């Protein structure tokens, strides 16, 4: 049964391959244009394995921001992974520490979105099946992220300007975000993040993102607490 769950996870996450391929290739291209060599580009993809924070850190470095600012910016964007982890604890918290560590490393937006939705819709899944499903989701995304980043770094400079891959970034996050806006706190967090990022867009080194990420988390959490208090009243 676990093998079947692994296959189902890979199958359910497979549509995101259409986005991950150009998205990761785009990072390879942009990283090379920013001055990173192939080894540095691929190493960043393997060590960070988080597209949004990689692009953020790279953009900050291109703007000649201090390294510490680039690290803080990437960390702020990646704070969403803490929320993802908390959301998965009820389903995967039983796993061994080594397994959970590997899950944390492999976690990406696409696989989280697919996995948590499957867990909510199929409460009959056993603990081993949930773990297998999660790794199936990762198997559909992570190898492509590594391989296509390398491909983009190698052939990126040879791509004609007419063959732009920029569309992959907004399309990917629209596809991820829209299905997850299922409650008031989700909508409040998304709204606050967008408004805050725009309000502080004038700050240097894209520091508006550093402010927007925690502001959105606080707003979503407060909204959820308020709703919980109303239900308890």
Topology, please?
Blueprint (H helix, E strand, L loop, with lengths): L1 H12 L3 H17 L4 H11 L2 H12 L4 H12 L1 H13 L4 H10 L2 H13 L5 H29 L12 H13 L3 H16 L7 H26 L1
Helix pairs in contact: 1-9, 2-4, 2-9, 2-10, 3-9, 4-5, 5-12, 6-8, 8-9, 11-12
Report on this model:
The chain has 233 residues and is an all-alpha fold. The protein has helices spanning 2-13, 17-33, 38-48, 51-62, 67-78, 80-92, 97-106, 109-121, 127-155, 168-180, 184-199, 207-232. It is globular, with a radius of gyration of 19 Å. The N and C termini lie far apart (44 Å).
Could you give the order of the helices and strands? HHHHHHHHHHHH
Helical element count?
A: 12
Low-confidence stretches: none
Kindly provide the radius of gyration, computed on alpha-carbon positions and rounded to a whole number of angstroms.
19 Å
Instruction: Give the end-to-end Cα distance, rounded to a whole number of Å.
Output: 44 Å
Strand content: under 5%
Structural class call reads mainly alpha
Number of strands: 0
What's the main sheet like? none
Mean pLDDT: 82
Helix content: over 70%
The dominant shape is globular
Q: Return the domain count.
A: 2
